[in-house]
Amino acid sequence: MKHFLIIGAGFSGLTLAERLSNELGAKCTIVEKRGHIGGNAQDEYDAAGVLIHKYGPHYFRTNAPRIVEYLSRFTEWHPVDYKILSYSDGRYWNFPINLNTFEQYLGRESTSGEFEAWLDSKRVPIAAPTNSEEVIVSQVGWELYEKFFKNYTLKQWKKDPKDLDASVCGRIPIRTNRDDRYLREDFQALPREGYHRMFERMLAASPGVEVMLNTDYRDVVGKIPHDHLIYTGPIDEYFDYCFGPLPYRSLRFENESFTPEQLKTREAISGKTGYWQPAMQVNYPNDEEYTRIVEIKHATGQRTPKTTIVREYPDDYVPGKEAYYPIPTPETAALYRKYADKAAELANVSFVGRLATYRYYNMDQVVGMALTEFERLKAESGKA
Fold it and tell me: What is the pTM of this model?
């Protein structure tokens, strides 16, 4: 029986463990430094009884039927349209920018044609945007860029948008119709009973998997015989930062819960009973230190009279803190390539996931990467 040692119990590690156990009959040992499975997608009930996403909101979405089919073996789904607002100049704005936002700006009704013409008059003609500032001003001009994007990006990344890859702000859609959904994917939903229950079912369906929590893999890797190592942690850490640490941005969360009595005073703002703010997520691009406030109860649909909001503060990263966002610049890409080349020289080691490949992936992309790596390992075993 082949033995896989898997470092990290997030989406990548759990998906690979489940597939290797059930399809190849392999033994898998998962080593996880935290006290829970699920990685950053972990959700849990807080002291107020509200289901929260512990490491920031995780909005599952995908256009890949195979990903939905695979995860649906372990969960039913709660469909969600993820809608957010932006708070600027003392008011809530529809966001991402769409026709509704333009009407708020004008203070009257408008049409897609008028909005398109207005944008044409404001856009900065840049044929091939090379950074995040260029990609936004080439779509909406300077005024909306400064209202919604510039300072938010400065806070989030501690870098001027002109110094960041175009993909950072380019991920945010600009629409001239009334589609105010945050995301474009066809399938948008959350696991009906939460991510943690889904992960528990993945493990329950995998008899050949053992999980070691609260364990640093460096303390045990030489003590656990294995045929193949699957590593989902930071690639620079694996190589003892031999080329220097890869830079990330980290996050700090400030949670606050409210009783029904306290929420009564917020009904005029939230627009409905039992909620603190009018949308699942409100961005704060300008004056506040935090970048957003998330009230995930809007998305989970949990029936509880209480609620919890989470203020999210960008934070500097040093090794030992949680690494959330790789910083996409030409310099960091070159540094990662040194580690990737070193990783390619290793036999019987797979590097899978966000941290191991130093790239920002959505959850469905991480699952897809893990399933692809499983197929490669399956073919290598001769059981394809």
Answer: 0.93
